[in-house]
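Lab notebook page, bench 4
Experiment: in silico fold of construct C2
Operator: M.H.
Input chain length: 273 residues
Purpose: comparison with the prior construct
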Amino acid sequence: MIGRKTLEKYILWTGLPVLFVLLTGCPSPPELHWAEEFEGTELSGDTWNYELGDGCPEICGWGNNEAQVYTRQNHRLEDGKLIITARKEDGGYTSTRITTKDKVEFRYGRVEARAKLPSGTGVWPAIWMLGSNIGEVGWPRCGEIDILEYVGKDPGMVYTSLHTPDSHGNTINTRKTPVADIEEGFHLFAMEWEPEAIRFFVDGVLVYTFSPEEQNPEGWPFDQPFYLLVNLAVGGNFGGPQIDDSIFPQEFVIDYIRIFKCPEGQFREGGCY
């Protein structure tokens, strides 16, 4: 008998159960490649890196004039969830930013993250990805995939974006999607990535597809491994500049992050062929 949690891991990205696939002959679901269920009492050093401080001197304000300082103390694991807390303290703001660089990297597949967002003017939670060659070519030549961005100053909206060299890092490949009650409870954010297209979903609904006609390194740096980043920023060019100090502390809660892949790389929209 298949257990509840095992079955949950094999739900199709369309939101349909595996049983539907078996009965209708639709494309088979992908295989679970990697999962972070945030069990235990602390993050595994085999999976996660901490990025600390304010980004200086290399990338002060982490490139966006963000107000927070990242620490190791602004998160906890509780009831199988990662809880990142942004605080106003000592005249500034603190939060957490973690990555899987050099530890969990992959090319093509589907990423799912179930999360509950913070709210209020000034918060900027994100689940995103960077090309693993960032150390050699820099940003934006490495490419960036923003699976989820939310800014408290723009309630009810979810942003999904990509950054490429030909956009000079500017956010032109993007979609802003209204989602009812996005600040309430948990929501499922997902990204499908195949050799010719990247698609974004919120709660099983397709919200944005990026598939340029010409795929070259300038407009499609997405043919290489990427790694994951999770953070809760405060203020900045996108999240600010105004910050409502009365809202803190605020929590960004991540239930899980899962990566699915298809056998032999046979990944297509709707499943594996």
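Observations: Residues 1 and 31 are 18 Å apart (CA to CA). The mean pLDDT is 89.
Next step: discuss at group meeting.
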